[in-house]
Amino acid sequence: MVSADRAAIWLLLLVLLVSRSDTVLAEVITTASETLPTSWNLLKELPRAGLAQLDLVDIELPPADVTLLLDTHEEHLGSHLRNTKYLAPQGVEEFDAFGRGKWVPLPQGGLLWSLRMQSKGALAHMILFSKVQLTQGSELVVFSPGAVANYTTCQHSCMRLTRSEVPAFEKLTTLPMQGEEVLLMYYQRKGTVSLSQLHILNVMQDVSGRLASAVHARNRRRRLLQERVTTLPIGTQLPVPLFQQDDSSIFGCTPSVECDPQYGTLAAGVVSIYAVDPTSRTIGLCSGSVVNAPRGNRYLLTADHCIRDKGQLQGFEYWLVIFNYNAPCGFTEAPPIRDVLQGVRLSYYDSTADVLLMTIPNLIPDHFHTFLLGFNASDLDVPEAAIAIHHPGGAPAAVSTVLGSGLSTHFPKPDFPPTEVQPSDKTHFQVTWTTGATIGGSSGSPLIDLATGKVVGVLTGGYSNCQDRTQPDYYGRLSVAWKAGLYQYLSSVEVTNTGISFARHSTVAVMQANNSLPGRAVTHSRLAFGMYPTVMHFLPNTTSRTLTYYLLDPPMENETVITSARIVSLLGNAVDVRPFVLLQNPQQNFTLADYGTQFVTQVNTTGLNETIPGGLLRFLLLVNFTSNVDPSVYRLMAMKGIIQQAPESWTQFEPIVIPSLPYYAKFPIQSSSGRAVFRFNATSSSAAVLDVVTCFVPQSDTVQIGSGATTAYRNGTFTWTLTPYNDPFGFKNCMFVPSWRSFEDDVYNIVISDQDDFNAVIQTSALQQVYFGLSNESIASSLF
């Protein structure tokens, strides 16, 4: 590469960012209900024999095998093992729930179905539904029989769902149902034809107590073994007291956040997280914070170790984010969970500082009264006093405080297991609490500077407990993650001076990413919409898909909201997609009477026969919303369409082999397979810290979309991915991965795929330019 190109690339690194399409995954989940389920009111109609049937157990579940979990997934889960609370029993696979259980005809017409499942010795259950479709007028209720006071209250361990309350993406994670039994009841009213579907993916059992005992026994065996051998087996070897602590023991020194009313506003930005891991079939508990960001983006900040398998993107649809889970000072009984969103999206992670950023794709309802926490990612500001608000063991929010010398950036490196996050004084704060402690479930909670009310760190873990006040915890510093790429999502912009833009071939202002934002209350514009799915897949034998969109806010009286949809063919396609994609009813009007209903239409592919040109075609379906009484109202939502010859994997495409680094290529980029897969060997001369830049041919000046995802595979194994992010600098078509560390003698594949389907590898004809090269320390330092 000539020197002019090299200089241009470094200038490009100063300003590259990419836009993100705003699609909907998260859904508000109805939890505790003041209205009794219809099926319960109809129980009195059943004869005694019918009532007796409800008490019979339909499925006896075996206990989940915690020993097998440790044998097969201990290294995979790592320090997240401390947060693991739920585990699916072995041998229980996905099943059609309506094919099990009992159907009972009601005397006055209609049907009642029930399914009772039991796990002897289980403390609680959570159910993951892979498919929930309810017919209009039907109702599903999931509850713990011991928590509903003989069918008179649906508050604790009870969820009532009608068709309008099922998440639009038709997957559902229930809240914890306490006790050994969980009962499902479904009511179908008289005169309706059932099109309902109910598929159960996993029935998760609370194994926190048994898991703690198993870890205790395993660590004891390891200590005995250590007397005979010099090397311990690799795995999570956390101190036993950390596993033996629970939320009851920690509240002895860690008060409820409501004991300190001055922290009420900050607590409104802290959440409890139920993180689903499909690989290990577990649910772990973490804490997190909803942070302020430019342009109204909604981000969830937590610990990177809260999810280990980032390649299992479908698992994020099952995540639960619990808002406002607080309890009065000195509480003895936990309150019901009420404010819940389901579904998040992976945006960014930094494993060194243990920071994970997730997008909350849907709007946070106003009635949640959420406060977006501010943040400070400057490495110059060390708080003199700080607090942590967290959900220990998933319990109501608690607060821990640290003053003065208890918070340090100069400390000896702690002895964490070699396969885990390694806190150091270069990456973490060490916190020795003045009051309070943390346990499993506190991971990911924010460390908040009391002077500013801004988040400065995220909890990795540690040794704090109520018995020994000298034991510290470790919080990953936002300033470290900021320099590694977090700025690309959370930064606002200020102009510093001028320079030459390689991407625009013109003189432009050089801009700097501000590393701090204040907190603010959540507000959103009137007339918000939801849309599902976020992506539609088509194959030659699958030519029709359903599109659903709906109002999240009611229109004004006499107002009509007009929707109009159109197809946009994405660059890189072998042909223009528009003639081959048909949308039924591209226009639809909503009035106040339509609020709460879902508009459903069909998207069809036609004329492609059995051959898809190029094997892959991509398009956007854009839906815009306007108002007949308020000209200022204009909303645009996007859904991705992917048409494939057959399901694909990046491994089937011949890669572009890069003989040495740095590597730079411009459009048109030649590839024998036509797909964007690049391969290079990290030899001893090139193993170092790398920068990766991928730029896409601009779609248009008006359609702002994220073009793709850049993923790295090390020796064929998923390593990291970067999906499109917020673009404060105005560049719509580039992604920049700074300071990525490669290892000697490893083989790396860089795969550029569709942001909504990592297996849909995009065509090289969609790429404007790519760069893989060694990071320049002087350039890297000037980035920040």
UniProtKB/TrEMBL annotation:
The keyword Signal applies. The keyword DNA-binding does not apply. It comes from the Eukaryota. Gene3D superfamilies: Trypsin-like serine proteases. Keywords: Signal. Pfam families: Trypsin_2 (PF13365). Residues 1-26 form the signal peptide. This is Trypsin-like serine protease. It comes from Coccomyxa subellipsoidea. The lineage of its organism: Eukaryota, Viridiplantae, Chlorophyta, core chlorophytes, Trebouxiophyceae.
